[in-house]
Specification:
Order of helices and strands: HHHHHHHHHHHHEEEEE
Low-confidence stretches: 1-43
Mean pLDDT: 85
CATH superfamily of the largest domain: Hypothetical protein af1432
Number of helices: 12
Number of domains: 2
CATH topology of the largest domain: Hypothetical protein af1432
Structural class: alpha+beta
Distance between the termini: 53 Å
Radius of gyration: 20 Å
CATH architecture of the largest domain: Orthogonal Bundle
Number of strands: 5
CATH class of the largest domain: Mainly Alpha
């Protein structure tokens, strides 16, 4: 019996937001799941690879492709597909690579970091056991390659500090079509990747670009990539703005999700990333500040934290860990910047 592919997974979806967004028509993709806020159970893990080395090579690959496009030279997807396999392995083996993708800041090299982060995020979002291995690798490779068209936009515009003019925004909005054309020329054997690159900025309510597609007109893979891209951009610094705290980024995702994203995608996002991801810092109702060191699948809003500052704002002399799922009188009240940075 043929194993179902990612786009074959069809189930009914229930609301997770205050108001159910207008659902996209057509079959629901694999990420529909009734356990809205419960992270997927951990799968058996192999020995964790060198996350830093994989991340460095992923950035190098993305950076190299951008340079080749600027030099009007061809690029290949072969290395990207091989890196995608390693990224999926690393995400399944441990949290180190995911932690890097969440927290690494790459300055003016943000485009290379964006591609690497997107590959990791796609491996994470599809790691619930439902997607086939081939689907996961292809989506991770799409994360690496989807934004190659930005190489055709002047670097002075990509690195501009401050708000963009309408003319500049119009130039930036050409990127998905640039990417589609480049990928069609150099990797024509990957049509799904090409379509996703062209549609990643489309939105379910028709407010996206370049074509203003709606609902089921958008490839379901592209919808998932679009959500990951939105989150990745929020939690990392860009030339024109600072990064969002992860908690605030999640709130923005949920706000936008009421109209721009499918409810089923929002479930997948919240299950895979949680509101308080690894390494983020939170304030407790006691006034203490802690860093999230472990997510509890059955208590996603009550993580395990390492206390950084006590309720008086003082650093501790020795490490203190608190599992909020076992502390009924303590809970998270807000997200805060890391006081150790």
């Amino acid at each position: 019996m043929r194993r179902k592919s990612l786009s074959d997974k069809i189930r009914e979806s229930g609301p997770i937001l205050d108001q159910e967004p207008e659902a996209a028509s057509g079959p629901a993709p694999f990420w529909t799941d009734p356990s809205a806020l419960t992270p997927a159970p951990a799968l058996p893990r192999a020995a964790e690879p060198d996350a830093g080395e994989i991340y460095r090579r992923a950035m190098e690959y993305v950076r190299g492709n951008l340079s080749r496009v600027r030099a009007k030279e061809p690029f290949s997807a072969d290395q990207g597909l091989e890196l995608a396999r390693e990224i999926v392995d690393a995400v399944d083996a441990g949290d180190s690579l995911f932690y890097l993708a969440l927290h690494q800041e790459n300055g003016e090299d943000y485009l290379a970091g964006h591609g690497a982060n997107m590959a990791v995020f796609m491996a994470r979002l599809t790691g619930n056991g439902e997607a086939s291995r081939g689907d996961r690798e292809l989506l991770a490779a799409t994360g690496l390659l989807h934004d190659v068209g930005r190489a055709l936009v002047p670097e002075s515009l990509l690195n501009k500090r401050g708000p963009l003019s309408e003319t500049e925004r119009a130039e930036i909005r050409k990127c998905p079509e640039f990417s589609r054309d480049l990928l069609a020329r150099y990797v024509p054997n990957l049509p799904l990747l090409i379509e996703c690159a062209a549609q990643i900025y489309e939105r379910a309510d028709g407010s996206g670009y370049p074509k203003g597609l709606k609902g089921s007109e958008i490839n379901p893979y592209a919808r998932l990539l679009g959500l990951a891209d939105f989150y990745e951009a929020l939690i990392h610094t860009r030339p024109h703005r600072p990064r969002f705290l992860h908690y605030n980024a999640a709130r923005e995702i949920i706000r936008a999700g009421k109209i721009q994203f499918d409810a089923s995608l929002m479930k997948t996002f919240l299950r895979s990333f949680t509101v308080f991801p690894l390494g983020s810092c939170v304030r407790l109702n006691s006034g203490a500040v802690g860093q999230v060191v472990e997510i509890r699948p059955d208590h996603p809003l009550r993580p395990k934290v390492r206390i950084l500052l006590n309720c008086e704002g003082d650093r501790l002399g020795q490490e203190q860990l608190l599992d909020l799922s076992l502390e009924p009188l303590l809970f998270v009240t807000d997200a805060v910047p890391n006081p150790e940075k």
